[in-house]
Write a structure and sequence with these properties.
4 domains; 22% helix; TIM Barrel; alpha+beta; Immunoglobulin-like; single chain
């Protein structure tokens, strides 16, 4: 009886539903803008709702999106459902769905629900989220050496740099450096906006073509030379930054529409001077013109360095932003002036303002990224360049430099600046709060499939980066820090493996003597560190068939010699002739036996090549840690090498010497004993010669030093022998009832705070310091200053 009742009820409902549809025919048609969308885009669609052929204007229409597994997908701001609005002009319902950051690729389902007079209708349609076709796949372990500010200095000698082995200064030495580190490509700067005087030296400068002529002059020569030397050439430009905006207007009449930002302290919309808005058509036009100028056969890559000083341009606050990003605004929004609208948004996206809202900021960043990508795509399409494009980016995963968005806009090679990559594990006191901002978000979301060509870069430290480079932590060398940051990032930024390659930034800082220098390290050390990181990536990917390692002690004493081994293994299936080279241009060593020899290796065979060096330098700025480096070269290309290095601590020794003499310069004889600080442990002892001379060469440190003469002795406590110290005692005078000790206290590392005087026969009646009586005490516990 129960089953019969349920069946009857079901049949009754079915009859009623069919009756309603037949009585009122509902038209429900979804119109997608296109069948597939790139990841930077916003899915745009319309819905045609009719009842008996008449458009329905009074309904509640919403949409949800599902991936190929049927899971609901939220868009930015964690919006799980979006509301459609009715457009009376074409009598259709409109909806927009910003594609989430770094989405899964594949087929998605748009499900639209319409509530019409209390009855809910649904319809669905499928579309695809895809990525732009990959135009080029870089080889694993790709390495580009940048040359920032190289410009046209080749013509008038302003950039004359030495080679890696101190070759005669010449601009062409940049290619010797590229070969030295094993680079695949050279990326010189080839364009920035005019500002400084002299920018019209080679060509006129005007608003239509505002590029400083010095910045691009000579581009044919440089890239042609790169090709001849076996390197790819990638010229890069700064199209949206004006570094001297006031001078640009004063000297050349150049001005732009700057980005706008909100100043919550004054409740004002202000210009972000120097940062050109993407809405300025003049910037798009001059960028296209420059790329067309650089479109020559020897340049096979164009780079864009677009580093807006803020991720905010309130010029982009418009009706499309509110509508397409589904932003909830006040009911009277349409009555706001444009400035009021910008302020309303500015308060909510500016951290520290009273109205700050992280969800609205996320929505805003996605809107910025969408517009940013459209501008890049337009520039690339209109420039008609024959080769690949690369772009230097920030650490953004959810922002204007989101790698999947930049890729789909047309950038073939994403070059994130790893200057903010994490420091070596285990060190604390990190002053750079943003150091983990890059690696961890990338490693959670970015895969090789989603973003195929990632070339992360590291910078040669200069004083501007001292707080983030750990140059202040001298026991950990900055070039080793560079290598670590490169490798940590390279192996963790992809969710599923190592990134494609690296860029090393840059030879002008390192060897050109420009606005930054590698001090206190050598340029060779940074070049070796970058080259070693690239060759290790190549080794991991199987691109090179040779493995090399260095066997050397962790510590030696300054002035000592030691021997080590370079171990080379043939990982390939064919025999190889390998040139094993101990690199002899790193400071700190006298290269006694530095091999540069060719060995034959059968498949899987390992051989050792020995070397001998002697520590010959003390440099406390680097904590006396010096690089030993070697390479195994197995072919004629610059990349046919495996480069490795190791830092060895050359523990310093100091010279402690002098002459015991009286005030008339007559020699005195005695015995000098050096004690471990604060103990009776003797480190070294020596007698003066017939001329009163004494000499010690001992490990640097702080010691107690005792002078023993016939009738008395005295001890200098806490003497700093971190550096050489000569003749701290200038003279000694022994008179019948008086002993005078003259001390050289004008020395930078000698400022004695405690002197123990020992009298074997009788105690002194008085003790004076600089003719001032000192109070007598009878125990060390009573001893205070000047007693």
């Amino acid at each position: 009886m129960k089953k019969t009742f349920l069946l009857f009820l079901s049949m009754t409902l079915l009859i009623v539903l069919i009756h309603n549809v037949n009585a009122q025919t509902i038209g429900f048609n979804i119109i997608l803008e296109k069948p597939s969308f790139l990841r930077y885009e916003i899915v745009s669609f319309r819905v045609n709702l009719t009842q008996d052929g008449i458009p329905i204007t009074d309904a509640v229409v919403s949409a949800r999106f599902y991936n190929s597994t049927g899971s609901l997908v939220a868009t930015v701001g964690n919006m799980q459902s979006i509301k459609l609005y009715y457009n009376s002009s074409d009598q259709l319902w409109y909806g927009y769905w910003p594609i989430p950051w770094n989405p899964e690729l594949g087929v998605y389902t748009l499900n639209v629900t319409a509530n019409i007079s209390g009855i809910v209708y649904t319809n669905s349609k499928q579309f695809e989220i895809r990525m732009r076709e990959v135009r080029e796949v870089l080889p694993p372990g790709f390495l580009a050496m940048t040359a920032e500010q190289l410009e046209s200095h080749i013509d008038y000698g302003r950039l004359q740099i030495p080679g890696p082995y101190n070759e005669t200064r010449n601009w062409t030495n940049i290619f010797k450096w590229a070969n030295f580190m094993g680079a695949d490509a050279v990326w010189p700067t080839k364009g920035y906006i005019a500002g400084y005087g002299g920018c019209n030296y080679y060509a006129p400068v005007n608003q239509s073509f505002p590029w400083c002529s010095n910045s691009y002059h000579g581009y044919q020569i440089e890239c042609q030379k790169a090709k001849e030397e076996g390197f790819r050439c990638g010229a890069w430009i700064w199209p949206y930054s004006v570094f001297a905006s006031a001078d640009a207007e004063k000297n050349f009449g150049i001005t732009f529409n700057w980005t706008l930002k909100y100043d919550c302290s004054n409740d004002q919309i202000v210009n972000n001077t120097g940062d050109i808005s993407i809405l300025d058509e003049r910037a798009i036009n001059h960028t296209v013109k420059m790329i067309r100028l650089l479109n020559i056969s020897s340049i096979d890559m164009i780079g864009i360095d677009w580093e807006p000083s803020t991720a905010v341009d309130l010029r982009l606050v418009n009706d499309e932003f509110v509508r397409e990003m589904n932003l909830q605004v006040p009911p009277d929004w349409n009555s706001y002036s444009q400035e009021e609208k910008m302020k309303w948004v500015g308060r909510r996206i500016t951290y520290g303002c009273s109205g700050y809202n992280s969800t609205i900021l996320e929505i805003w960043k996605r809107w910025m990224a969408f517009n940013y990508a459209k501008t890049i795509e337009r520039i690339i399409n209109e420039s008609d360049f024959h080769g690949s494009f690369f772009m230097f980016t920030w650490e953004d995963v959810h922002g204007i430099h989101s790698p999947s968005i930049i890729h789909d806009a047309g950038i073939d090679i994403i070059a994130p600046m790893l200057y903010t990559a994490p420091a070596r594990a285990g060190r604390s006191g990190n002053p750079c709060w943003y150091e983990t901002a890059m690696v961890w978000p990338w490693g959670r979301e970015i895969t090789k499939e989603k973003v195929p060509n990632v070339v992360g870069g590291q910078i040669v430290w200069d004083r501007a980066y001292i707080n983030c480079s750990y140059m202040t932590t001298r026991e950990y060398p900055a070039p080793l820090e560079m290598y670590d940051r490169m490798m940590i990032s390279a192996t963790q930024m992809y969710k599923d493996g190592n990134i494609t390659g690296l860029f090393w930034h840059d030879i002008y800082r390192c060897a050109g003597g420009g606005y930054a220098t590698p001090y206190p390290y050598s340029c060779a050390e940074y070049a070796i560190a970058g080259g070693a990181a690239a060759s290790d990536l190549r080794l991991k990917a199987g691109r090179i068939p040779v493995n090399l390692s260095i066997e050397a002690p962790d510590e030696v004493w300054y002035g000592d010699s030691f021997s080590g081994n370079i171990t080379v293994t043939n990982l390939g299936s064919s025999s190889l002739n390998v040139n094993v080279i101990l690199i002899n241009n790193t400071p700190g060593w006298e290269f006694i036996a530095a091999p540069n020899t060719i060995i034959s290796l059968a498949p899987s065979e390992t051989k050792k090549v020995s070397f001998t060096v002697k520590s010959n330098l003390r440099n406390y700025n680097v904590d006396n840690r010096f690089m030993i480096a070697a390479k195994a070269v197995f072919g004629s290309n610059s990349t046919d090498q495996h480069l490795e290095f190791k830092y060895v601590h050359a523990k310093p020794k100091s010279i402690f010497s002098g002459k015991l003499k009286d005030k008339n310069n007559n020699p005195l004889q005695g015995k000098i004993v050096i004690y471990q600080r604060g103990s009776s442990n003797i480190i070294s002892t020596n007698n003066t010669d017939s001329q009163g001379n004494y000499y010690f060469f001992i490990p640097s440190g702080i010691y107690d030093i005792e002078y023993n003469l016939t009738e008395f002795s005295f001890k200098l406590n806490d003497v700093d022998l971190s550096y050489d110290l000569y003749e701290p005692v200038s003279y000694l005078v022994k008179e019948e009832n008086r002993i005078t000790i003259g001390l050289n206290t004008n020395k930078s590392n000698f400022n004695p705070q405690k002197i123990e005087v020992i009298f074997p026969t009788r105690n002194p009646v008085r003790i004076l310091k600089n003719n001032t009586d000192l109070e007598r005490v009878y125990s060390l516990a009573e001893l205070k200053s000047n007693k």
